[in-house]
Amino acid sequence: MPDESQQGIDKDLDVPKQSVSRRRAIAIILSVYLLIFLQASNASGMTMAQSRIAGDLDAYENAMWMTTIYLVAFSSLAPVMGRLSAIFSPRTMVVASAILIAIGQTITSQATTLTVFLVGRTITGIGGSAVMVVPFILVLELVSKRRRGIFMGLINAGFTTGVSLGAVVYGALINEPGWRFLFGMQVPLALIAGLGVFLSIPSTFESGGSKGAKDANLYDKLRGIDYAGAVLLTSTIVTFLYGLAGKVEYTPLVVSAALLITFLVVETYLVSDPLIPLSVLQNRGALLSCFAQLGLMASRWTILFYAPVTALAVRGFAPAAAGSMLIPTNLGFGSGGLIVGWLHVKRAGSFYVPSLVSVVLFGASLFSMGYASDPSVPLWVYILLLFLNGLFTGAALNYTLAHILHLTPPDAHYMATSLLGTFRGFAGSFGTAVGGGIFIRTLQKGLEHGFKHLPDGGGDDSRREDLVKKLVGGPALVFHGPEGLLSPEERGVAVRSYVDALRVLFHAASVLTVVVLVLQAGTGWKAPKAEGEEVFREVVEHDGERDLEV
Fold first, then answer.
1. Separation between Cα atoms, residue 39 and residue 104, nearest integer Å
2. Which of 143, 195, 359, 363 is deepest in the core (most CB within 10 A)?
3. How far is CA 339 from the centre of its chain?
4. What is the pLDDT of residues 384-412, one digit of tens each?
5. Residue 98 CA neighbour count, 13 Å, CB half
């Protein structure tokens, strides 16, 4: 028979911190899933809508910002939203998030200039930032440790469903009824989802740092926010991404480094209740896990954003069908997380080796994508690699999340998980900004060089420059542009330029996974020692009994 201590451990694995009725749980799951779907589809859907919107707003040269500014907004505000969720409760933050999404989508759907469109995208991204954090908070509070792995897999599956189906829906509806309808129809959906979460989460629900503080008045809650840390961290992320988007700008990168140093000084020495607790900032395993997650998901975003581009510009898919390229990779992503959560992540403890193995397999599949993004490679091979890349990503995310919970003390789990979610969200903007810069620079050079070496030189300078500008901002124009836009020879140059740019992009991303592997290996496999254990060890060593094993 198991002893009492073992029975206590087993019970701890099966009992959640808080509980709700089955009806409330179903309502929470459905409402949160709808918000996750809207947030994820807003990132991937722009791949399909970008060419049409850029044409309507005459914004081919700045088309990449339609996606980038949204990702920058929601990822840079995610740490702040995580902290606010602890102060004001998740249910309050979800309502605020839904309202911001509705406002942003209203502005976006009515935009007649690129500036107004980007303002709407920014507000939508700010609203979506809470959606990156709240689902993980709910799982930590409402799900037992034994079932936590499969529910984390379900969250990942929710995000990936939004990414894949979002691209399909945008591609199917972009021409009729049009992109304005696509953004406008999200307004009532966001409000319904926000109201559903607010009504289904009990008013007594508390999480993380909010526990025991529910009776505090609004003034005390507002006073508890680390405004300096929030502004500095957000500014650090925004300037860093701005410096890497498109052409590399060194001044914003220097400013970003200075802001980061200032943020660390303020959080360490000047703030009593920092945005990110020192117990997390000083935990080597937690920090390395976050940076490894950043690199992993930044590499993953090159697949999510450029698989539909490959279908459009290399394989000649129609816009309505190009988004379907995300279905196999996101099916693999959801399957990987669910399988790992169901079969393996059913305990608390180290998942060091599985984390490393999944990263290696992910990097190998990404490297292969660099050669498979070519029209000469059979389509089934390309689809298989997309599926495997998603499978290994889903497994890696679940393993690394379980491992960071092992590496951090229980009282830091909430913030460590929120920080990991922040880096995952940050990775989307990092991957599209940095990867987009690499891709666009390579593509532009290839197009310019290819057109110049055609028999007619690609026409006069103004026509050649106009073609390059349009093809860089509109991949759908390669096979589905206006009649007479490209001659057969010019289309061949465009396809080859896209193939070369994709190969450079995916191989650069696979090199990044080597860095990810080193960072993940550096997290270690030992859990932090409990406070009582440290005190006992010090007493033992002080008495000279160093051979006693604790």
1. 12
2. 359
3. 21
4. 999 999 899 988 888 888 787 777 776 66
5. 24
pLDDT band of residue 415 (cuts 50, 70, 90) is low
* Distance between start and end Cα atoms, the chain: 25
Integer Cα distance of 289 and 524 in angstroms: 10
Q: What is d(CA 381, CA 365) in angstroms, rounded to the nearest whole number?
A: 12
Q: Which residue has the tokens 């990991």?
A: 420
- Cis bond leading into 177, ω under 30°? yes
Neighbouring CB atoms inside 10 A of 79's CB total 28
Nearest Cα neighbor of 292 from 383, 208, 396 is 396
Q: At what angle do helices 250-265 and 227-244 cross, to 10 degrees?
A: 160
DSSP notation for 114-149: HHHHHHHHHHHHHHHHHHHHHHHHHHHHHS-HHHHH
3-state helix, strand, coil in the chain (%, to 5): 80, 0, 20
375: nearest Cα among 428, 327, 456, 317: 317
539 vs 537: CA distance, rounded Å: 5
Rounded Cα distance between 216 and 213, Å, is 5
Which among 154, 156, 151 has a CA at the least distance from the CA of 132?
156
Domain 12-206+213-226+273-542 has CATH 1.20.1250.20: yes
Q: Which of 54-63, 115-124, 228-237, 326-335 is most confident? A: 115-124
Q: H-type helices in 201-283, by residue range?
A: 218-223, 227-244, 250-265, 278-281
Closest CA to 403 of 349, 338, 344: 349
Residue with tokens 């006992």: 536
Q: Where are the domains of the chain?
A: 12-206+213-226+273-542, 227-272
Distances (CA, A) of 426 to 74, 142, 282, 415, 496: 8, 26, 20, 16, 31
Q: In which band, very low, low, confident or very high, does the pLDDT at 218 lie, cut at 50, 70 and 90?
A: low
User: Which of the given ranges, 76-80, 126-130, 347-351, 482-486, has the highest pLDDT on average?
Assistant: 126-130
Q: Rg of the chain over CA atoms, in angstroms? A: 24
Dist CA 132 CA 416 (whole Å): 14
Question: Residue 427 corresponds to which amino acid?
Answer: A
Residue whose structure tokens are 């902290």: 83
Phi-psi region of 244 (alpha: psi -120 to 50; beta: other; left: phi over 0): alpha
The CA–CA distances, whole Å, from 385 to 85, 282, 487, 537 equal: 38, 38, 32, 51
Reading the block at residue 310, the tokens are 């490959």
In sign, the C-alpha dihedral spanning 123, 128, 133, 139 is positive
Q: What single letter denotes the amino acid at residue 403?
A: H
Residues recorded for the chain: 550
Q: Which amino acid is at 226?
A: D
532, burial (CB in 10 Å: exposed 0-12, middle 13-18, buried 19+): exposed
Buried b (16+ CB within 10 A) or exposed e, 346-369: bebebbbebbbebbbbbbbbbebb
Torsion of CA 271, 409, 333, 197, to 10 degrees: -60
